[in-house]
Every structure is written in C-alpha cells, then in structure tokens.
UniProtKB/TrEMBL annotation:
Pathway: Purine metabolism; IMP biosynthesis via de novo pathway; N(1)-(5-phospho-D-ribosyl)glycinamide from 5-phospho-alpha-D-ribose 1-diphosphate: step 2/2. It comes from the Eukaryota. The keyword ATP-binding applies. The keyword Ligase applies. This is phosphoribosylamine--glycine ligase. Keywords: ATP-binding, Ligase, Nucleotide-binding, Purine biosynthesis. Belongs to the GARS family.
C-alpha cells in the first residue's frame, strides 16, 4: 500500500520498511519520537505501536523482528512518521474503475476511556463523523480513493469491493492522509453504516460486481448511529472464555432503535450465551442525533448482565463535543 501511495502521489506518512532490527533502530534514532512501528502482515488489530519514547520504539522493533510476537506478520516492519490529528474511517464501494462514497464513520481504537491504553480492533464507532464535511469528502475522493482505484487499474489489478480507508486529518497541514486500507466493511464501523443505509444493499453490491456503479445513487438515513463494543475483561491481552452473558433479548427490546450484534459468542450445553472471544458484542442504537444514539446504546448496554465483560463509557465523545460546540455557537 505504501509503495502504491508513493508511486501515485497519494498522501500518506513518510516511512521506511525494515527486516533488520538494528537498521530499524538506527532510522528511529535519526527521525526521533514519537514514531509509529507497524507489523507488515495481519496482526488481529494489534500490530501498530505508537511509541512515544526511544525505549518504547526499540521494544516494539524487538518484539516484532526479534521475538516474532506476530509470527510471519512481523518479519517485515514499517517505521513511519507520527501524524497528529483526528482519525476518521472513509468507505467507498468500487467497481474496478469507478467509486461511490459510503457514509462516514469514526471509530475508537484504544481500549480505555479518553483514548488511553493499547490499540484494539475497535471499541466502538459512530456515523456520521462530523469531522468529515462534504468538502473534505470530495477532497478524500479526489486525492486518495480515485487515485488508488486508477492506480490499481494501471497495475493490472483492478479492485472490486469495499475500500475502507483509515485516514488522519493532519493537524500540521489540515489535510487528510492515508493511514491504512482494508478491503472490507470495517468492524465495528459496519454496525453503524448498514443501519443507516436506506438503499438496497444487495443490488448495490451487484452493481459493483457488474461495473455499473455510475448508475447508482445511495440514500442514507438522517439519523445518527452509534455502537458500543463489549469485550471480555483483560482484552486486548489475555482473557477468560466461556463466561455467561444474560438478558440480551430484554436489553434489545427495552430501548427503541437498538440492535445487538454478536461477534464472539456461543452457546453452552444449557443453551446460555457465552463469550468465546475478545470483542464479544456490538450494541448499536439509532437516534435523531449522536447524543440520542449514544444515550440509547448505553441504556441497552446497562441492561446486559455480564460481570466478566467491560466497555468504554465514552464512545462518541468527539461527535458529542462537536454537536455541543455547534449548538452553543448557534445560541450565541
């Protein structure tokens, strides 16, 4: 991905790749901290380390290249400049030559309230993301998404499917830059995108397969959606499996506009729902605005009986702050 960005002038963080730990450390000494160290392969959402000190950066390099904490995924690492700013998820549906933007979303990667603690696969998300204005959406399409689609076509490898761009709005330049691509609907972003989609999903995906997205116009609900992820205590580290979860049906029925998605659950021999993974449930709620969606999601969360689970209590805090600031400015 980084090579494609360089070749087709797609804005992203400056970087170098390494297979040798000493070479990586020399480069880190040269550029200083904070710095980002990434495993090149799949690492269950845990292969990105934001190192604030040299010691942290060197430990990250050693864990990936020397200790092989991520196996083959860490045999090649990327060391890149740290970009300061808000992250946002941008989704587009691609038919090989043309792309249609989907609704915006913003997720919370850190495990703890206030965006603290280690990175995870995602502890919650909301849509739309107030940060992503229509002007910014056009900029992302023209400088990142469409150059990627055209670049893949030129490489003889047309891409068809969902292109999920992890972006950062660089504080220094006030411009969007590409952090990563996934080629799927994101989790937990999908749980706030699809509930807001009013167009028929199957026919839209079929149009992408047939190369007919130019004919498609998507319709989205004006409501906001927010999902809170419930995870096993200890995640993203070691956690216990097989703990019992109760009151799910009542929790979903008690709060209007709520849907509970199962990610890591199973049934025990007595038919009880049990946790079988790290991130276990996604509680999604729709509301007139992000404040109402957030309130409803947490109302449903609080109805669930799971002493061995936890969640962040501040999902959507940025969007709530944006809305409150906007309302304050209007009143003034």
């Amino acid at each position: 991905m980084k090579k494609l960005c360089t070749k087709y002038n797609i804005p992203t963080a400056e970087y170098r790749s390494f297979t040798d730990a000493d070479d990586a450390k020399s480069y880190i000494r040269e550029i200083g901290t904070p710095v980002v160290v990434k495993a090149d392969g799949l690492a269950a959402g845990k292969g990105v380390i934001i190192a604030m000190t040299l010691d942290d950066a060197f430990d990250a390099v050693d864990s990936m290249l020397v200790d092989r904490a991520f196996g083959a995924a860490g045999g090649l690492i990327i060391v890149e400049e740290f970009l300061d700013g808000e992250e946002v998820s941008f989704f587009a549906l691609v038919d090989g030559e043309y792309a249609v933007p989907l609704a915006s979303a913003q997720d919370h990667k850190r495990v703890g309230d206030g965006d603290t603690g280690p990175n995870t696969g995602g502890m919650g998300a909301y849509s739309p993301a107030p940060l992503l204005t229509s002007e910014l959406e056009d900029l992302v399409m023209n400088t990142i998404i469409l150059p990627t689609v055209k670049g893949m076509e030129k490489e003889g490898c047309k891409f068809v499917g969902v292109l999920y761009a992890g972006l950062i709005l660089d504080k220094r330049t006030q411009m969007p830059k590409l952090l990563e691509y996934n080629v799927r609907f994101g989790d937990p972003e999908c749980q706030v995108l699809i509930p807001r989609l009013q167009s028929d999903l199957a026919s839209t995906l079929l149009a992408a397969c047939k190369g007919e997205l130019r004919k498609v116009s998507l319709s989205w609900s004006n409501e906001a959606a927010l999902v809170v992820v419930l995870a096993s205590e200890g995640y993203p580290g070691k956690y216990k499996k097989g703990t019992t979860i109760g009151n799910l049906e009542k929790a979903e029925a008690a709060v209007p506009g709520t849907k509970i998605f199962h990610a890591g659950t199973g049934l025990d021999s007595h038919g009880n729902v049990i946790a079988t993974g790290g991130r276990v449930l996604g509680v999604t709620a729709l509301g007139r605005n992000i404040v109402e969606a957030q309130k409803r999601a947490y109302q449903a969360v609080d109805q669930i009986h799971w002493p061995d689970g936890f969640c962040r209590r501040d999902i959507g805090w940025r969007a709530v702050s944006h809305l409150q600031e906007h309302e304050k400015a209007v009143l003034e």
